[in-house]
Amino acid sequence: MPTTKRRALIIISSGRQLPLSEPAEVKSISTGFFLVEMAQVLKEFENDYEFTFATPDGNAPQLDINGMALSVHSIEKTGAKTLPLRMQQRRRSFDVNNFRQRHPELVARREQEVRLLERHIGRIPVSELLPNSEPELAQYRPELIRRLDKLPEATFHSLQELVQRHRDPADAFTLADFDFIHTPGGHAPMVDFRDNPWLGETLHVARENDVTISLICHAPIAVTSTRQRIDAQGAAYSVKDNPFLAATISTVPKIGERFALRFLYPRVPGKATRLPYFVDVAIKEAGFTVASSPNISAPKLAYEPSVRLLTGNGPQAIDQQTAKLRSILTHSPAARRTSGKQASA
After folding, report:
1. How is domain 7-62+156-336 classified at the CATH fold level?
2. Mind listing the pLDDT tens digit for each residue in 132-156?
3. What separation, in Å, do the N-terminal and C-terminal C-alpha atoms of the chain show?
């Protein structure tokens, strides 16, 4: 029976190990995507949208346990909450139940997000704890895994599959039937969203069909992929006069990344910890303008209507970004058009 719901594509990185350039003896750390940067979109649109989930290679994504920290769920207050909440967990008297009881609104939001994950995605792996992960997460991770292990595995389409089906006249599927694409961050997109030709082709086809694209936190590294497309034979080629270059991009800034590498979970204790590259620097090197803000913990959105590209700088921006996405869609060509082929992926 045909669905009466509209359609959205959620593209999640399937990266599970984040390479490090330093320290030399630690080649990579366990990573994944941030649920907080996807759940609000699921909540806002689940009543009137059907979601299709994809990863670049079709493998299941991994949930980053560090994105489940209670401070992350304070959204616009994340910058102010992160260090105080970490300090509370370092006290000798730290008790996980008392800690959670002191922050009921954050516990409630996290629980709501996990229920959205259970409802829409199902069983996926959870990243390993890191030496600098928050103590509360050490107790929460086993609880979360037990819940997810009870669920069936979800289907994740590869971008190559979706593009090839879109091109097949005998297949009812078309990327044009999606009103929007949303992609959460976490560090995982640094692994498989940079200079990925199949991702580039997906984004260009979306643009050509008036599909709104929403990228947040580290996910805007995907714009580097728009420098390439895939031809009819499946070979990558360089894009001349890339229309996406009109967009100003909001993403996690280098100064914020350096702060995290010094004080938060990516840090290897006792060692200088460095990533192979910074997302905002790579985006600038690809020819894009990057939006900057003097307050790195404040929400920062950027929207370019000519390519229907919306970007945000991290979990602090997800509520504003979701509201902006709803506003854009309300006035979009996609909201007014009638679907032809059915997006039945």
Report:
1. Rossmann fold (3.40.50)
2. 999 999 999 999 999 999 999 999 9
3. 14
